[in-house]
Amino acid sequence: MLQRIQSIFLALTIIGMGIFISFPVWTKTAAAGDQQISLTALKMTHQINPVQSNIDSVPYLLVLAIVIAGVSAFALVKFRNRVLQSALCAVNSILMSTLLGLVIYLTFYKAAKLFDPQIPGDYTIGFYGLIAAMIANVMANRYIRKDEKTVQQSNRLR
Fold it and tell me: What is the pLDDT of residues 95-111, one digit of tens each?
């Protein structure tokens, strides 16, 4: 049923991905304050000076986040089939790990070396939305398995 705890966690996964899409994921400002770089789900913007900037498009982050939210929404409405719900949560875990890996790659290996390599940059609310979505997905999968185990035990007792 939709009022089960795993439904709340799946909804939190969708909300976390919405936060990831809506807010910046990572920012870094040079020590002199003249350069700035920020990563969102759609682009990485390197502000070189007040007039000049480089924009790298990263639409694959946005597509992956939308797919994750879609899989979570589909798992949310498939509350009668707990095995499918659990499999969808497992797929979501893989997709979220891929998204996290891409974000870390872009921040540590691509963007951090552009200026002041000793300054790491700051993860912002978009990144923490991804982390919250990952935790909510794990918790949803845990409670789905717990529900399935309860149902299997009750069928055995009949």
Answer: 999 999 999 999 988 88
